[in-house]
Amino acid sequence: MTNETKQTLVIDEEQFLPRREMSNLERWLGTDTYRALRGMVTNPTSIVGLVLLGLFLFIALAAPILAPPISSNPYQIPRDGYGSVPKPPGTLWNSRQPELPFWWKPIMGTDQWVHIMGTASGQWDIYYGVVWGTRTALQVGLLITFVGAAVGITIGAVSAYYGGWLDMVLMRITDIFMAFPFMLAAMTLSAVLTPVLGKGLFPPMIALMAFGWTGFARLLRSDILSVREREYVLAAQVIGVKDARILFRHILPNAIFPTLVLGSMRIGSYVITFAGLSFLGIGAEVGYADWGQLLSFARAWMTNLGEYWYIVIFPGVALVLFTLSWNLVGDALRDVLDPRMQGSR
Amino acid sequence: MGVTMDNTREIALHVEGLKKYFPIRRGIFQSHVGDVKAVDGVSFDVYKGETLGLVGESGCGKTTTGRTIIRLYEPTDGKVIFKGKDLAKLSSNEMRHMRKSMQMIFQDPYASLNPRMSVFGIVGEPLEVFQLANRQERRERVAELLELVGLNPDFMTRYPHEFSGGQRQRIGLARALALNPDLVVCDEPISALDVSIQAQVVNLLEDLQDKLGLTYVFIAHDLSMVRHISDRVAVMYLGKIVELTDRSTLYANPLHPYTQALLSAVPVPDPVIEEKRQRILLEGDLPSPANPPKGCNFNTRCPKAIDICHEVEPEMVEVQPNHFCACHLVKPVG
Ligand SMILES: Nc1ncnc2c1ncn2[C@@H]1O[C@H](COP(=O)(O)OP(=O)(O)OP(=O)(O)O)[C@@H](O)[C@H]1O
Ligand SMILES: [Mg+2]
Questions:
Q1: In chain B, what percentage of residues exceed pLDDT 90?
Q2: How much is the mean pLDDT over chain B?
Q3: Which end of chain A offers a freer environment for a tag, N or C, measured as fewer CB atoms within 10 Å?
Q4: What Å distances lie between residue A321 and A200, A253, B77, CA to CA?
Q5: Chain B residues touching residue A9 (CB < 8 angstroms)
Q6: Closest CA in chain B for residue A14
């Protein structure tokens, strides 16, 4: 009897060998995440995106060294007089010259500080605004995305998890929010909020958060609904796992990744929308280091941009590259992760 | 119903008139326009320690039956008596505790293990959720379980992606056995595996049944697969059981025209008989369970259908002792 049992239990050795060895990194990250990350560092598009992103991160972190602040508020762009005509790159500082960065003299061989990217009307230093504006862009982009994603994830998860009438109500609300043209809705809301909160970054940020969560809610909800039908979720129910644990241990970890990808793709577009609002004068006060704000200086010179190109080109290129870098990273992530998502925005 | 019991053996599971309808909803108001009658009045007993095979072609409602028994789906109607309780009436908390005694293994070994959890996490989870063991004890128990299903306990730290289909099915089995269940519903546990691995898993299931005194409901889509493992076999067609008897009787003397057709497709090892084997080909497709035919639901494909079959639904009758059949053409003997 026991012998017989032994007999049938002996299995060819190959059965005992795992199919594939995994590295510890892969174990820790989970196979999907690991594959995605590996795809990210081998895919040319994503490498370009990551390099650009690294550059912006460096500029943001090194801002005090690249452009030493003149006042206690580093986001205040220093100005060189009050003249209304912009000055081209390379013009010497006249008055109130800020402290020279230590790297200037060894490289340039002079201790004359110039307007590296010229000045805008009102003699605001463009270089300073672009450098510190990188910080603003990162802060604004990350914060809007973080809050928007958090709201969207909560609503999507609650909707998918409880289903029924709550799902119905939440999804109709989402539809309503999605029905508004994004830019227009954000503009209107920030215009309404500005008198209440005062002029500054918050009104447009809150407006973007208020209309930005819908995509996250939709995506996560549908992913949860599909993961919920997988057999391992049924298996968890069969072994008596409680609902909340099923959601957090079995469903969310397998459903959340596309939502995170969406987040990375949204950062760039939030920053560009935010800059658009700033350009229209909703947002940062005049003189605040913010790309959209800098671009708005060009409004008065629309017809002479051939001459005053530098007001548009420097902040404009920064903005485009910043958005591009997040989009490249997000696109690459989406491709390595999930063919289902291709084509969704 | 006409299903009487064999008094000499202890009944582990009694299913009576079980129905599971999936509502079909349409339109913006999601109005209820009909039902998919996936399981439509199924009754059977499973005796303690036996294996009941549940056979039928794809889409006939086997999986739904299994999942409704174990209450992954709420039954539309009927009784499922297990350990003296009607599972359909238990609260979700009572049912949760009942799950310690009834388990399930799934058809697709690639989908039934959470890719984000280690083997230790997966197999140890039942112990964790019922707080039956601390981490160290869990580790020991998981090692024991892995050995029981023929896996190396060192694999505990590995993740599902690292295993083959057969190995994964063993992991699923270890998880199912963690709480010492009495009843295991096996939903086509071998159909997704290579033929060479199938026999190993079936042998393992049989060994474990002997060792642990398990009772199985074993679902499969053809009769050759259940022949080896089943003590009794129930044949299902379009949400209903058409014939139920012990294995040898069924294979030697199938009564229902559907069973006869299914059996005619199974190759016989004896070359002389195999030579004479005549395939009964069923015409047409399985009708939609949303709109089953009137009368006997097999009448659209039955080679022997007579007038009454189109009008009256046949009752399940005990044609011979322990041989149940639902067909107008089959009359009880004596
Ligand atoms: N969740 C569901 N919602 C609606 N209809 C369903 C659902 N699950 C199953 N069905 C339908 O119920 C019927 C029976 O399905 P079931 O999966 O039980 O069949 P099965 O016998 O297990 O088939 P297979 O051999 O393919 O696994 C099918 O027509 C199927 O489409
Ligand atoms: Mg099935």
A1: 67
A2: 90
A3: N
A4: 24, 32, 62
A5: 150, 203-204, 207
A6: B164
CB contact under 8 A, B114 and A254: yes
Q: What is the mean predicted confidence (pLDDT) over B248-263?
A: 92
- Give the homologous superfamily in CATH for domain A54-67+133-344: MetI-like (1.10.3720.10)
Indicate the DSSP class of residue A125. Answer: E
Ligand 1 site, residue B59, Cβ cutoff 6 A: yes
SS (H, E, C) chain B: CCCCCCCCCCEEEEEEEEEEEEEEEECCCCEEEEEEEEEEEEEEEEECCCEEEEECCCCCCHHHHHHHHCCCCCCCEEEEEECCEEHHHCCHHHHHHHCCCEEEECCCCCCCCCCCCCHHHHHHHHHHHCCCCCHHHHHHHHHHHHHHCCCCHHHHHCCHHHCCHHHHHHHHHHHHHCCCCCEEEEECCCCCCCHHHHHHHHHHHHHHHHHHCCEEEEEECCHHHHHCCCCEEEEEECCEEEEEEEHHHHHHCCCCHHHHHHHHCCCCCCHHHHHHCCCCCCCCCCCCCCCCCCCCCCCCCCCCCCHHHHCCCCCCEEEECCEEECCCCCCCCC
Q: Locate the domains of chain A by residue range.
A: 54-67+133-344
Enumerate the residues of chain B whose CB falls inside 8 A of the CB of residue A31. Answer: 115, 159, 161
Query: Can you tell me the distance from the alpha carbon of B127 to that of A240, in angstroms, rounded to the nearest whole number?
Result: 10
Do B161 and A240 make contact, defined as CB atoms within 8 angstroms?
no
Residue A30's pLDDT is 67
Report the share of chain A in percent with pLDDT over 90. 37
Please name the amino acid found at residue B87.
Answer: L
Yes or no, beta carbons of B210 and A232 under 8 Å apart: no
Q: How far is the CA of B173 from the centre of ligand 2 (A)?
A: 18
Question: Which has more confidence, A202 or A12?
Answer: A202
Q: Is the pLDDT of residue A279 over 70?
A: yes
Ligand closest to B57 (CA) is 1
Minimal CA–CA distance to B188: which of B306, B324, B54, B74?
B54
**Residues B74-103: tens digit of each pLDDT:** 999 999 999 999 999 999 899 999 999 999
B299 to each of B119, B210, B330, how far by Cα in Å? 48, 41, 14
Mean pLDDT for the stretch of residues A126-146? 93
- Which pLDDT score, from 0 to 100, does residue A339 have? 44
A228 min Cα distance to partner chain B (Å):
12
Res A5: pLDDT: 40
Q: Give the pair of three-digit tokens for residue A298.
A: 């060009």
Rounded distance from Cα B257 to ligand 2 centre (Å): 23
In the structure, what pLDDT confidence band is assigned to residue A343 with cuts at 50, 70 and 90?
very low
What is the rounded CA–CA span in Å between residue A74 and residue A139?
Answer: 14
Residues within 5 A (CB) of ion ligand 2: B 63
Ligand 1 atom closest to the Cα of residue B60 is 21
**Mutation to probe ligand 1, out of B32, B57, B62 (largest number of atoms < 8 A from CB):** B62
Give which of B260, B332, B326 is closest to B296, Cα–Cα.
Answer: B326
